[in-house]
Design a protein that fits this description.
Layout: E1 3-4, E2 16-18, E3 32-37, H1 45-49, H2 56-68, E4 71-76, H3 87-103, E5 111-112, E6 128-132, E7 137-141
Parallel strand pairs: 1-2, 2-3, 3-4
Antiparallel strand pairs: 5-6, 6-7
Length: 151
Amino acid sequence: MIFGKILSDEQQKALVWDIGRGVPGTALPRAWQTDTCIGGWHYDRSLYDRNGYKSAKAVAHMLADIVSKNGNLFLNVPVRADGSIDEKEEGVLEGIAAWMGVNQEAIFGTRPRAVFGEGPASDGAPEFHRAGLPARRHRHARRMPAADREG
């Protein structure tokens, strides 16, 4: 794959646009990518000490949003000097794997809806991002109405 950070419209026909830790506000007509990490780009023990990693839930929400906009997510997991990852990073990856085990068909091989963000827009309605499959639709609820929340 060949990608670029600053691409003209013509270049985007041949290269993948790398937004780099960014996400557009709407679906794009061509595939694009973004990259982020669960912590810093390089291993930082202070992030571990203060529980500063992104949660699996946050990554799953980010992934669903990116895929619904015709994008791909590259997720960096910084390694220690010996090449290993710590148990908190493992926990995040295990959480993402568990989420993917349930939701993978809403991620792999999907395409954005023709109208991004269509659906209920009234107060209190869940905000949906959709990724369409040939025979069905999957909706990713980004927030739950207060009446449906536990606790």
